[in-house]
Design a protein that fits this description.
Chain lengths: ~325, ~450
């Protein structure tokens, strides 16, 4: 049994869960200025994710910790190489995180406005940056024989990586609108549904653009399982949009979650056994073989993940269930 | 240049993060106890205090989270060679921390904040217990990771890096076992000084409600116990460090030459280039007592330890910046003692019902709020600066650990970004803490 391969799968799973959960979180932040016409409506939108956003963001933190423990070279190369992008991500997340807690603590309109702006940009930028980042893993970046990234910030930006960088916020906004349609009430819920209805087709078009660009710019199409997953991504998205047109938002949301999960799966299947592709020399790519921790550490961490990931999923599911139902006026005291 | 910038950035981001952590650790426990008392007795006073301290807790917690994420990413961003060398070991507690602590903490705090009407009273109190448990568990993982950097255990050097071979030995690290309770109790001390200080502010202004008296009484009782234990455990830790990390102890005491018996320097003017103290006020025999509980013990000095280190690790300077460590140590111990005495005095007066008449003491207790923060940072300065030039003691030096691909320009960009963001957040944080601390706990807040 190759423990590094198990960890490759686990990293993919953690990223998929992260994108699915933070997807609707970021989405709510991105659509809140569009949908929330009044202070009350913006508060209601924030409260749909209020109890869960931090737990969702922890999946990103776990992805970072898991990369550090299982693939230290990927953690080192990726984070030092994408330095400026990561700093922008962290700055966005800092503002976003405090906004949720601070916004309600003062009633001055300027105060509320400030944090509303932070929530919007703090959700849009991370979505975009993660899109660009994962696209770069697959397209390949200049990594030298010593595993170091030798490009600059602007080498990360190309038509292909930017297309994924646009897809992510749009897909998340769509995913978030569906969530808002399910979790808010009355007029707000109606408008969220109609936003989903309108943004769904845009997401489909972008998804097709990304698929074509992936075919042109990466070697993903030489990996049949990845192609199957990519086709399934498109299918799930189309089914999701179909349900949203029928106002079956629950099913639609499940399918949009599947879309994000399948897209992540396609990406990692296309990468395997690599985690970061070197554009300079295929032999310099970071792989499960050359970038992983020792078998002892991987075994220990596999045991930890096998015990704790199911427990985490169980109590997070329980927390979502406790907070089920639509956010209404009486929940707005916080 | 790059190395200096990366170090400054790490010092600023870790120091800023640690302004929020100790209060989170201690206050979560305090609130969990208050809410449990409410569930058990049904008395309103406990509910009011739970809500009052809960509001401050949430503001503080948000700051702790967002500044913490910046740290988790920074190892890879600025210290990629460290990450490659140490990931096999250091990544493990970080991943465990996320899996076992962060998820619990974030999920159950979400339930606590939003669950007042959706959860039963015992369940709601249970959520705060989980938050308190998870927060302190998170500290366990981080201290274990830091302890490895201070005194590595359970590893082997293989494939050009440190690899974990014994997770049990990693945890049986004595450095970890001494550091952990010292820091957790420092968290409780910080929280109680804040509780006592804010309660004192209200009492000094003439608000003598039962709620505030209860808050003061509980804060003082917890406070003297915690502050006392911090001092005792700190002394025990000093003895361990004298035995296991003599260079750090020697730097803490600016003890240049080996002496037997050894005298303790109370204050000194330190000349690091001449490697001696031109002026030093000393107490004979005391250093032996502090380091070994033995007045006649020999305590090795920095200059001898440097020679030994050259023999073990090859040519180089193995002396940490002595003056910083020496003065940080005195600051930490001095403030810790002062807090213990002030809390103890206030506790005695309060028992006899005389504290509320001493308005000047109440005001002093309020102005004492910054002290645990200064002491906490000073304590970490002793630990981290005292480890220099090593990033991982005996295995990797700081100047070999930073990211070769990160340029000075990128570092200036991120460093100035952090400084601007953190200055802004500091103002917002102080504004919100003040605003919430001034509310009357007896009045219902929407």
């Amino acid at each position: 049994m190759d423990w590094a391969v198990i960890w490759f799968v686990l990293i993919a799973v953690i990223f998929a869960v992260f994108f699915i959960l933070e997807g609707f979180d970021y989405g709510i932040g991105i659509i809140s200025p569009l949908l929330g016409r009044t202070d009350y409506e913006r508060r209601a939108l924030i409260n749909t994710i209020g109890p869960v956003w931090d737990g969702n963001e922890t999946w990103m933190v776990t992805a970072g910790g898991a990369l550090f423990a299982a693939f230290p070279h990927v953690y080192a190369t990726l984070f030092s190489g994408f330095y400026v992008a990561l700093f922008l991500l962290l700055a966005s997340l800092i503002f976003r995180g405090v906004s949720f807690e601070f916004r309600s603590k003062d009633e001055a309109p300027a105060w509320r406005k400030l944090w509303d702006i932070c929530i919007f940009w703090g959700s849009l930028l991370p979505a975009l940056l993660w899109g660009v980042a994962v696209a770069n893993l697959l397209r390949g970046v200049p990594i030298d024989a010593g595993m170091n990234y030798v490009g600059g910030f602007f080498d990360l930006l190309s038509p292909y990586t930017l297309s994924v960088g646009v897809l992510f916020p749009v897909l998340f906004a769509y995913h978030g609108s569906l969530y808002a349609a399910l979790k808010t009430s009355d007029d707000l819920s109606e408008r969220a549904g109609s936003l989903a209805h309108r943004s769904g087709p845009v997401a489909i078009v972008l998804c097709l653009v990304v698929a074509v660009m992936t075919w042109l710019q990466t070697d993903l199409f030489t990996h049949p399982p990845a192609v199957v997953a990519l086709l399934a991504t498109a299918a799930a998205l189309i089914v999701s949009v179909y349900f949203s047109c029928r106002k079956r938002f629950g099913w639609s949301f499940i399918c949009s979650a599947a879309t994000i999960g399948l897209f992540t799966a396609s990406l990692f299947l296309g990468l395997f056994p690599r985690l970061m592709v070197s554009s300079l020399n295929p032999a310099w790519s970071l792989t499960v073989a050359n970038a992983s921790s020792s078998p002892y550490t991987l075994k220990l961490m596999t045991f930890a993940a096998a015990v704790f990931v199911p427990i985490v999923i169980a109590y997070q599911a329980w927390a979502h269930w406790l907070m089920r139902g639509r956010v209404s006026a009486k929940d707005l005291e916080y | 240049m790059e190395l200096a910038l990366a170090r400054i950035q790490f010092a600023i981001t870790v120091g800023f993060h640690f302004l929020f952590v100790p209060l989170t650790l201690g206050l979560s426990l305090f609130i969990a106890v208050l809410e449990t008392l409410y569930v058990r007795t049904g008395r309103e006073v406990y509910l009011k205090l739970t809500k009052f301290w809960g509001r401050l807790f949430v503001v503080n917690f948000a700051m702790g989270i967002v500044t913490g994420i910046a740290l988790e990413f920074q190892f890879g961003m600025n210290w990629s060679e460290y990450s490659r060398f140490m990931g096999d070991i250091f990544g493990v507690p970080l991943a465990f921390e996320a899996l076992t602590a962060f998820f619990l903490e974030s999920t159950f705090l979400g339930l606590w904040i939003f669950g007042w009407h959706k959860l039963s009273r015992p369940m709601h109190a249970f959520c705060m217990w989980v938050v308190a448990f998870a927060g302190n568990l998170s500290a366990v993982w981080i201290i274990s990771a830091n302890a490895f950097m201070q005194a590595p255990t359970g590893y082997v050097l293989r494939n050009g890096r440190a690899e974990l071979v014994d997770f049990g030995a990693f945890f049986a690290n004595p450095y970890f076992l001494y550091q952990l309770p010292h820091m957790l109790l420092a968290g409780i001390t910080t929280a109680t000084v804040v509780v006592v200080g804010i309660s004192a502010w209200h009492l000094a202004r003439g608000n003598r409600s039962e709620t505030l008296r209860m808050s003061m009484k509980l804060g003082l009782t917890w406070g003297i116990a915690a502050a006392f234990l911090v001092l005792v455990l700190g002394h025990a830790q000093g003895i361990y460090i004298g035995k296991d990390k003599p260079m750090k102890l020697a730097a803490m005491e600016a003890h240049w030459e080996t002496e037997k018996p050894a005298s303790f320097s109370v204050v000194a003017i330190i000349d690091e280039s001449a490697k001696k103290n031109p002026v030093s006020l000393e107490i004979p025999y005391l250093l032996g007592v502090l380091a070994y509980n033995d007045p006649l013990a020999e305590v090795r000095g920095i200059n001898d330890l440097q020679k030994e280190a050259v023999q073990s690790y090859g040519p180089g300077n193995y002396i940490p910046p002595v003056a910083i460590v020496y003065w940080s140590f005195r600051l930490m111990v001095g403030l810790g003692t002062l807090m213990f005495l002030a809390l103890g005095w206030a506790w005695c007066l309060n028992r006899r019902g005389k504290l509320e008449d001493r308005v000047s003491l109440l005001k002093f207790l309020f102005w004492m709020i910054p002290l645990p923060y200064i002491a906490n940072i000073a304590g970490w300065t002793v630990a981290e600066v005292g480890r220099q030039p090593w990033i991982v003691f005996g295995l990797q030096k700081v100047d070999k650990a930073f990211s070769p691909v990160v340029s000075a320009g990128q570092l200036i960009f991120s460093l100035s970004g952090y400084i601007l963001i953190y200055i802004f957040l500091t103002f917002v944080w102080i504004y919100l803490m003040k605003k919430n601390a001034r509310l009357n706990p007896d009045e219902e807040v929407a």
